């Protein structure tokens, strides 16, 4: 359940305003679900050598872009019609920023799908698929938890997502070092290993975007911006 100290949205005299905010949140979560699926399917396409599934992911990116444009338009209309203040303005502005993060996650999924197609044409990569599965599941969990934190306005869960980002960075660096060593041992592996490296980098970026969403959830819940701040500051904001 959300932190009992967190603000609650959607409690206004105007029922229509309540409906508009609810619809905005619903559309955002729908886009989040679509993006989650894109990432999951891209990883599956790569690890299963499924070029057709990868192509489906590439084509679906257009739907993600369309969702971003629709959500931006709806958020702007809410601001124009209602001129929200305080907590409601934080919600609408945060949604606009988080939508941009979701769209970029979709872009990273498309990149992974492109690499899946190339690797399928060249044959399976000699190394790195275990790391892709592991880091992929980690960042998917972060993304899911960040979206769930938004749905429940749970700043404690958002903080947990932020703390996971450092571990993903460490996992990415370890996997990159292992691949570099493998490439040095046999130059014939360089092309395929570089593509695996790009996939790992895309996954690491997805973790960054999940962390960004979590930071916005804390801003909505607590009214304080924790971006670019030490983790201790975020802990203080959430714990107060």
From TrEMBL:
<comment type="similarity">
    <text>Belongs to the PhoU family.</text>
</comment>
<dbReference type="GO" id="GO:0030643">
    <property type="term" value="P:intracellular phosphate ion homeostasis"/>
</dbReference>
<dbReference type="Pfam" id="PF01895">
    <property type="entry name" value="PhoU"/>
</dbReference>
<dbReference type="InterPro" id="IPR028366">
    <property type="entry name" value="PhoU"/>
</dbReference>
<protein>
    <recommendedName>
        <fullName>Phosphate-specific transport system accessory protein PhoU</fullName>
    </recommendedName>
</protein>
<dbReference type="InterPro" id="IPR026022">
    <property type="entry name" value="PhoU_dom"/>
</dbReference>
<keyword id="KW-0963">Cytoplasm</keyword>
<comment type="function">
    <text>Plays a role in the regulation of phosphate uptake.</text>
</comment>
<dbReference type="InterPro" id="IPR038078">
    <property type="entry name" value="PhoU-like_sf"/>
</dbReference>
<dbReference type="GO" id="GO:0006817">
    <property type="term" value="P:phosphate ion transport"/>
</dbReference>
<feature type="domain" description="PhoU">
    <location>
        <begin position="132"/>
        <end position="217"/>
    </location>
</feature>
<keyword id="KW-0813">Transport</keyword>
<dbReference type="GO" id="GO:0045936">
    <property type="term" value="P:negative regulation of phosphate metabolic process"/>
</dbReference>
<dbReference type="GO" id="GO:0005737">
    <property type="term" value="C:cytoplasm"/>
</dbReference>
<comment type="subunit">
    <text>Homodimer.</text>
</comment>
<keyword id="KW-0592">Phosphate transport</keyword>
<feature type="domain" description="PhoU">
    <location>
        <begin position="29"/>
        <end position="115"/>
    </location>
</feature>
């Amino acid at each position: 359940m959300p932190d009992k100290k967190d603000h609650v949205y959607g409690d206004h005299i105007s029922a229509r305003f309540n409906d508009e905010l609810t619809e905005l949140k619903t559309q955002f979560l729908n886009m989040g679900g679509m993006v989650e699926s894109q990432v999951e399917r891209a990883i599956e396409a790569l690890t299963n050598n499924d070029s057709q599934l990868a192509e489906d992911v590439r084509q679906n990116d257009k739907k993600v872009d369309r969702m971003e444009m629709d959500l931006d338009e709806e958020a702007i209309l809410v601001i124009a019609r209602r001129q929200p203040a305080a907590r409601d303005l934080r919600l609408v502005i945060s949604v606009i920023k988080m939508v941009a993060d979701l769209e970029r996650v979709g872009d990273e999924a498309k990149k992974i799908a492109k690499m899946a197609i190339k690797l399928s044409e060249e044959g399976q990569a000699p190394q790195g698929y275990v790391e892709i599965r592991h880091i992929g599941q980690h960042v998917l969990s972060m993304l899911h938890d960040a979206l769930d934190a938004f749905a429940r306005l749970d700043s404690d869960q958002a903080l947990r997502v932020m703390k996971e980002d450092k571990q993903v960075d460490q996992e990415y660096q370890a996997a990159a070092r292992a691949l570099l060593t493998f490439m040095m041992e046999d130059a014939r592996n360089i092309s395929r290993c570089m593509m695996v490296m790009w996939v790992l980098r895309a996954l690491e970026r997805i973790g960054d975007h999940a962390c960004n969403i979590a930071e916005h959830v804390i801003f909505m819940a607590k009214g304080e911006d924790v971006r670019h701040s030490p983790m201790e500051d975020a802990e203080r904001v959430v714990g107060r």
